[in-house]
Amino acid sequence: MSSTYIFGIHPVATQLKALSDNVEVLYLSNQRHDAKIKFIEEMARNNQIVLQVVDNQYLDKITGHKNHQGVAAKVNMNRMVDLKQQLQQLDGVSNITFLALDGITDPQNLGAILRTAECFGVNLVILPKNNSANIDNAVVMKTASGALNFLNIALVNNLTQAIELCKEYGFWVAGTSLSQNSISLDKFEVTPRLLWIMGSEGNGLKRLVAEHCDYLVTIPMIGKTQSLNVSVATGVVLSYTNMFRNR
What percent of the chain has pLDDT over 90? Predict the structure, then answer.
């Protein structure tokens, strides 16, 4: 995974606390001198990280945004893993949850999903190399709010082949869908090794991906809107998964 930029007080501070060795350069605005910036600067100096004081225009340029809060870091994210190797390492382990994303192209949605996945202890996130927001995107990293420091992520060429590989290692596959064949989440029995698949908000799961699912699951709702943001829906199914296993 190549170097990229994260920005914002909280994401940068989280990175420095969790994986400071991955920070190549810390950039600080010459227009901020408050306590939060001083705290980040102190952490960087304690970890012997290269510091550069720059103007806001430079931060705008490297981050692609104006809401960088006067701080950015060039980082080398190294949580990328090989799917088959992860399956081999976890072979025979129970209460494993994988999450695959099908067509999540909005960077903010992807970042929010990754943050949600880390919060609920997902063991691995599977992303297709195509038809997905770029994991190196600055908005993804800021929205993920440090989750990328702790999540294992596997990029795959073909999502359906990845699904079948997971099945070979004892995973059952559940995709969220409003299909007539779907079962309600509150009736779904969580398996010891489970792969959840979330589709895009606009189109849902691709037909071929849905056909490779063992279960299609819908989230019961009582309101009139009858739709959830995909990151919220992810939180619902992952929370249910953990509660089911902890009964």
Answer: 69
Domain boundary (30, 52, 76) is at 76
| 108 and 70 within one domain | no
In the predicted structure, residue 43 carries a pLDDT above the cut 60: yes
Query: Would you state the pLDDT for residue 134?
Result: 86
For the chain, the three-class secondary structure string (H helix, E strand, C coil) is: CCEEEEECHHHHHHHHHHCHHHEEEEEEECCCCCHHHHHHHHHHHHCCCEEEEECHHHHHHHHCCCCCCCEEEEEECCCECCHHHHHHHCCCCCCEEEEEEECCCCHHHHHHHHHHHHHCCCCEEEEECCCCCCCCCHHHHHHHCCHHHCCCEEEECCHHHHHHHHHHCCCEEEEECCCCCCEEHHHCCCCCEEEEEEEECCCECCHHHHHCCCEEEECCCCCCCCCCCHHHHHHHHHHHHHHHHCC
The answer to whether residues 166 and 233 belong to one domain is: yes
Above 80 in pLDDT, residue 19?
no
